[in-house]
Recover the amino acids of this structure.
């Protein structure tokens, strides 16, 4: 299955940060720019993100786009409304299909690794969904190399559908997949569909060292990722990002386009997921598709960032969904 290099994601936008009509305009802009891959999850905006995306895609020829969603995080107060048990997977997929207004999902992903559910039970449930025609392909998000290997071994032994994708965080500043996950994925035919390639907006350059974050930005919105972005909100990181601007200017790119293009230089990256609150952002980010960065440019970026990027593979962690 082909995907667009730039994928449209609605983690903390649809149903939360962006009103429904604006979200629909963003999806329309995505199609206009050649973006055909749309990624969401049952847990985003308390399930509302799937509903909004389903409305935005209503009336669009189903074969003309690739629809991705995920299961794992809590979607309700019940003790079984979470994790990767067979019960939750089957109940969650049917709820997602209803919210998305479709009869099948192109890529269904295990949103994290579940340490309590038996792995073969989770994989059997995914296999059944593939055989029922409700899911075309399967993947995972934020698994480490050992977890990936464990699943692939079971799938091979039982002749089950194999994982085709990994959805990790990946950016100039967060490179933890490069040491173990990427080499294994290349060996096993798994592609990366990466999230947060502009580090929650930090790599756009809109946050300045020594200055308060712009009003209405993600860094100021506690409901939309302020806690998550806080790791990057240091003068050292923000100054380094500003020092990337001459590199982007020389190439005729914005900082966000440079960040997206950087992630796409990794041959194991199939697509980068970008979010947007308005159509102009979609149009700007789409211009990163097809951009090739010379080795000298990649080296210049590394020289600016120095030791700031996180590379420790042990940073790939899955929380206990039942805690």
């Amino acid at each position: 299955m082909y995907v667009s290099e730039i994928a449209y994601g609605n983690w903390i936008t649809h149903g939360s940060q962006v009103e429904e009509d604006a979200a629909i305009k963003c999806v329309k802009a995505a199609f206009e720019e050649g973006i055909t891959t749309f990624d969401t999850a049952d847990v985003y905006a308390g399930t509302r993100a799937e509903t909004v995306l389903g409305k935005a895609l209503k009336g669009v020829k189903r074969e003309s786009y690739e629809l991705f969603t995920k299961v794992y995080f809590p979607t309700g107060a019940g003790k079984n409304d979470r994790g990767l048990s067979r019960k939750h997977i089957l109940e969650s997929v049917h709820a997602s299909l209803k919210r998305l207004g479709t009869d099948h999902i192109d890529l269904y992903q295990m949103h994290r690794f579940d340490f309590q559910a038996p792995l073969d039970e989770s994989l059997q449930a995914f296999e059944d969904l593939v055989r029922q025609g409700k899911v075309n392909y399967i993947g995972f998000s934020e698994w480490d190399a050992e977890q990936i290997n464990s699943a692939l071994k079971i799938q091979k032994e039982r002749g089950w559908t194999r994982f085709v994708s990994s959805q990790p965080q990946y950016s100039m500043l967060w490179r933890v997949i490069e040491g173990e996950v990427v080499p294994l994925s290349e060996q096993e035919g798994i592609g990366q569909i990466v999230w947060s390639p502009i580090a929650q907006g930090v790599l756009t350059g809109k946050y300045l060292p020594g200055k308060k974050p712009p009003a209405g930005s993600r860094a100021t919105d506690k409901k939309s990722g302020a806690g998550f972005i806080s790791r990057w909100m240091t003068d050292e990181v923000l100054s380094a990002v500003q020092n990337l601007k001459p590199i982007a200017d020389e190439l005729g790119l914005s900082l966000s386009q440079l960040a997206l293009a950087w992630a796409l230089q990794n041959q194991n990256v199939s697509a980068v997921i970008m979010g947007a609150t308005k159509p102009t952002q979609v149009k700007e980010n789409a211009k990163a598709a097809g951009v090739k960065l010379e080795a000298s440019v990649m080296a210049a970026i590394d020289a600016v960032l120095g030791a700031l990027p996180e590379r420790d593979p042990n940073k790939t962690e899955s929380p206990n969904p039942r805690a």
Observations:
- The first helix runs from residue 20 to 32.
- The chain has a mean pLDDT of 93.
- The two ends are 36 Å apart (CA to CA).
- The chain is about 35% helix and 10% strand.
